[in-house]
Amino acid sequence: MSTVLLVEDNHTQMELIDTYLRDGGHTVIRISDARDALNKAIEKKPDVIITDVVMPGMSGFELCRRLKNNPATANIPIVICSSKDQEIDRLWGMRQGAKAYLVKPFSQEQLIRTVKIAMA
Predict the structure, then answer these.
(1) Which of these, 109, 55, 42, lies nearest to 82 by C-alpha position?
(2) pTM above 0.90, yes or no
(3) CATH number for the domain including 54?
(4) Contact 46, 29 (CB under 8 A)
(5) Beta-strand relationship, 3-7 and 48-51
(6) Domain hosting residue 77, numbered range
(7) What is the largest CA-CA distance in the chain?
(8) How many domains does the chain have?
(9) What are the 10-residue block averages of pLDDT along the chain, 120 residues in total?
């Protein structure tokens, strides 16, 4: 179906999201560090990137901003997937260039639908 670059530092969340995506027919590239995700996005050119917000070293917001400012990755849709559920968080994520914002916890159906909408 499509290739998803998943950026998540929590192992349990990584496993859950990976399973949801693979069961939905997606190929998943797993990265636990936002800085590594920048290089991997340029190298692999995924169809969509899903990132957490709260990570050590670089937040998902900053990752989103850097990806959107890089011509090599600017057109890759980004889904922010976070437990931060305030409207200001959602608005800030969209301002950084995210195409969608999904609040944890979520169902497999919600994740697959959000990825599909982001890629449309």
Answers:
(1) 55
(2) yes
(3) 3.40.50.2300
(4) yes
(5) parallel
(6) 3-119
(7) 33
(8) 1
(9) 95 97 98 95 98 94 97 98 93 96 96 96
